[in-house]
Amino acid sequence: MSSNSAVSDASAHQCPLCDNSFGSVIGRNVHLSQSHDEQQIDQCYLDEIDHVATALDLPENKSPTTDQMDAHGRFSARSYHNRFGSWNNAVRECGREIVRKSCYKLSDEQLADELHRIRHMLALPSGTAPTSMQVVKYGKFGAATYIDHFGTWKAAAEYAGLDLQPATHRCYEDPIDYGPNWEKVAQSVRERDGHSCRVCGEGSGAAKQSHNVHHIQPARKFRIVDSDEYNYTKMNELSNLITVCPRCHALFEGRWPGCDPAEFAERARRELTKPECRH
Prior knowledge:
Layout: H1 25-35, H2 38-55, H3 66-72, H4 77-84, H5 87-94, H6 108-121, H7 132-138, H8 143-150, H9 153-159, E1 169-171, E2 174-176, H10 182-192, H11 204-207, E3 212-215, H12 232-235, E4 241-244, H13 246-252, H14 261-272
Antiparallel strand pairs: 1-2, 3-4
């Protein structure tokens, strides 16, 4: 942590809620999870974004960058990804405007090279593309950047000469199987939604592929305690599922858990009007 940190080295391992001190970041974070409720912890993370923005005298409503958060905050940008699904999700929850490191003008080759860099870093099998979640977690650019540039995630992988991984959802690199009847359930959701994205309205015919079926409450939340099994019945209730195009899926993954499909779609449509979603 830099000498200009908004949080001093002496208090770096201090619980921000009760001021108990710990010998490591891990010790502090274990204490947080065991001694404070989830809503308190979420608010603590969000308050820290405000604290860093104020300490750095950033323009009103602007967020710190991930580099600034890593250098000056109690919590790293990666920890926000783990807690909120992405750094951008955390910034939105905080009510601040996302500040991008730069406005990239990217070529096909630059994006393809980045996919190969991530594949190599994760030691994936030769010719295998990283998943969109792996790109969000380890890459320089979000999944939406590839989808905007190439049209679909599959097209981006194909340009790079890579094959998509099997259709399992990955969160924190653990594959999650949606259950033995997933294809039937997904098809019923697409039929309910008219084979169109509930957010932007794009039909699957226009995309030349079936749209994604998104779990509003993330699948990992349905893992049975102390087991590798999942409660597929609750996970795949129709009220937890919504049809979205690949771009909207990438943009709104992890947002608004607990909403029903209609409310999720309405919130996402409002987000699409914001500048960061229109490029």
